[in-house]
Every structure is written in C-alpha cells, then in structure tokens.
Amino acid sequence: MAAAPRLSIDLASVAPVYRQIANGLRQHLVEGRLTPGDLLPPVRQLALDLGVHFNTVALAYRSLADEGWLDLRRRRGALVLERDTPVAPQRDLVDRLLRRLSEVTAELRSAGVPPRKISAALRRLAEGVES
Amino acid sequence: MAAAPRLSIDLASVAPVYRQIANGLRQHLVEGRLTPGDLLPPVRQLALDLGVHFNTVALAYRSLADEGWLDLRRRRGALVLERDTPVAPQRDLVDRLLRRLSEVTAELRSAGVPPRKISAALRRLAEGVES
DNA sequence: CTAATTTGTATATTGTATATATACATTATT
DNA sequence: AATAATGTATATATACAATATACAAATTAG
Fold first, then answer.
1. Under an 8 A CB cutoff, do B10 and A97 touch?
2. H or E stretch including A70?
3. The pLDDT value given to residue B84
4. Cβ neighbours of B131 (radius 10 Å)
5. Which of A25, A104, A124, A127 to mutate to test the interface with B (most CBs of B within 10 A)?
6. Closest of A99, A79, A15 to residue B108, by C-alpha
7. How confident is the model at residue A12 (pLDDT cuts 50, 70, 90)?
8. How far is CA B75 from CA A85, A115, B21, B67, in A?
9. Is pLDDT above 90 for A73?
10. Cβ atoms < 10 Å from Cβ of A73
11. Nearest 5 degrees, angle CA B122-CA A95-CA B44?
12. CA of A58 and C1' of D26: distance in angstroms?
C-alpha cells in the first residue's frame, strides 16, 4: 500500500530532473512494480531522498496524473490508479517515440558500443515487453 | 561527395532543434548513408531547407564535430571524417543511453501501444544494428 | 468544534538553455 | 587585391527548469 520506488536521477544529464523522475516512476508503473492502490511517498519525502526541491517532484507527479496514472489529493497523497491504457494511441507521440528509439540506438553505435551488445540490449527489452 | 541528407525536425517536440538535427545526421552517419569524404550542405543551406536559423544548424554540426564525425573548416564546409569508434565507450554515457532506451519503451507502453508492436520495433532495430 | 498538521497547489524569482540576429574571421577563387 | 562563400563569436530575447515561499484543503488531536 505504501510504496517506496527506487529511483535514480542524474544531475549531469541533459534531461530535466522532473522528467527523469516521471520516467523512472512510469517504468515502475508499466512494469507492475507499482500497482493500483499503492501510495507514493509525499512530494517532500521523495524530494528529500533525491536531493531536489519538492516542487520538482510535484511536477513529476502531476505529469503522471495528466497521463492517468495517479490521482493526487491533498493530505492523502499520490494514489496509483487502475488505468485502462488509451485505446487509440496518439499517432504523433508514438511516431516521436519510435524515432527516439532509433536515435538512441544511433547514439550507442556512435559511442562505440559493439553492435552485438546493442542488439542484445534491444532484444532483452523486447522480451521484457512481451512478458 | 556532396550529400543532401534527408532530415525531418519536429517543432512540437520537447527535443531542441539543434539536437534533433544532430540526431538525424548521426543516424545517417552510423548507418553509412553519409560516408567519409562526403560534404554536408553549408549551414545556411540546410538551415533554409529546415526553416531554422543557420546558427542552430551550426550548433548541430559542432556537436558532431566534437564527437569526431565531422571536420569543419571555413569556406570548405563540413566534411565527414573517417572515424574510428572510441575504443573504450564512456561508461556513464552508455548507461544513460541504455536507461533512456528502457524509458522510451515504458513511454510507448504507457501510450497504449500494443506490446507486440513495441517488441517488433525493438527487434527490427536490433536487426538493423547487426547488419 | 476548533486548532494543528500534513499533504498538494499556486505564484514569483532566479538561473540556464535555446534560438536568433548580427558582426566577424578565414580561405578559395577571380 | 577584391570578392564571395563559408564557419565562428558574441549579444539578446525568450522559454524552460528548479527553487523559495505562501496558500489551500482535509484529516486528526485536543
């Protein structure tokens, strides 16, 4: 019922912290480590753990609430919802994300990661998704 | 020798334009559609094609030059280099990119894309990398 | 029933990043 | 030597990110 998700944020990354937090939580959500009924830590608590300001966490929570993952209420906190996935995925968003996948793959090649390793990582992800 | 890479940028995306350009070019580079000896279009030309300011393109070119892909010289332009991939990929960078892959995958699931489609896209990417 | 406490929310401030405008530097060609 | 075609440097406007601070709501304590 009370959930303390494991998150790590990277201050050196170009990705803004609030989005890193949202991304990390979204992974826990889609992968079922956070399930409906769970309560996330209060924004001040998680902010303390991560070493950022509580409004930054609040912004991440609100992003996920906008996506339908959370219900936020004062005094009670952030509740994980039973969420039916959107029936009609937004075309634009999906296209952008797919392109992003191939961009990141190109970055990995550019960084000198052996193709074998890259494709192994991709296949591992593919398996994870199907389970 | 003169190369006119096909690029598309998305002004609605959260990704800054200069990085979108660099990402797109990097894909052409790692996938061999741009090869050593090719000359990219002048910054003003590509900027005109894309509808952005030439300094934005210049910034993208410089990013790729920093990565060792391009040699920039005034009057001659942006030359694609013979680039030996880094022998020791930067651990931090690679970790960040791998995490990014799994974040994007989570975003796709969150957007309601059927797992089958996601894993198919991932496997397709994996195949492309190995070729 | 009221006060205190615990939560999320709203607004303002400050720093940083992005995109552009403009001027400059370099170098090949005429 | 002059011109033209490039990339580069610097300044500025704007938007975004992170924080500080004040507020609002709702549960609990007394």
1. no
2. strand A70-73
3. 81
4. 8
5. A104
6. A99
7. confident
8. 54, 36, 21, 21
9. yes
10. 9
11. 115
12. 18
CB atoms within 10 A of CB A27: 21
Judged by CB atoms closer than 8 Å, whether chains meet at B123 and A121 is answered as no
A3-A72-B107-A44 Cα dihedral, nearest 10 degrees:
-60
Strands in B70-73's sheet, in edge-to-edge order, are B39-40, B77-80, B70-73
User: Per-residue confidence of chain B (131 residues) as pLDDT tens digits?
Assistant: 557 788 999 988 889 999 999 999 999 999 999 999 999 999 999 999 999 999 999 999 999 999 999 999 999 999 999 998 777 889 999 999 999 999 999 999 999 999 999 999 999 999 999 98
pTM of the model: 0.92
Phi, psi of B8 (to 5 degrees): -130, 135
Name beta bridge partners: B78: B40, B72
Kindly state the helix (H) or strand (E) to which residue B121 belongs, with its residue range. Answer: helix B115-130
Residue with nearest Cα to nucleotide D24 C1' = A74
Cβ atoms of A119 and B129 closer than 8 Å: yes
Which amino acid is it at B70? L
Q: Are A25 and A63 in contact (CB under 8 A)?
A: no
* Mutation site for A-interface testing, chosen from B84, B101, B117, B130 by largest number of A Cβ within 10 Å: B101
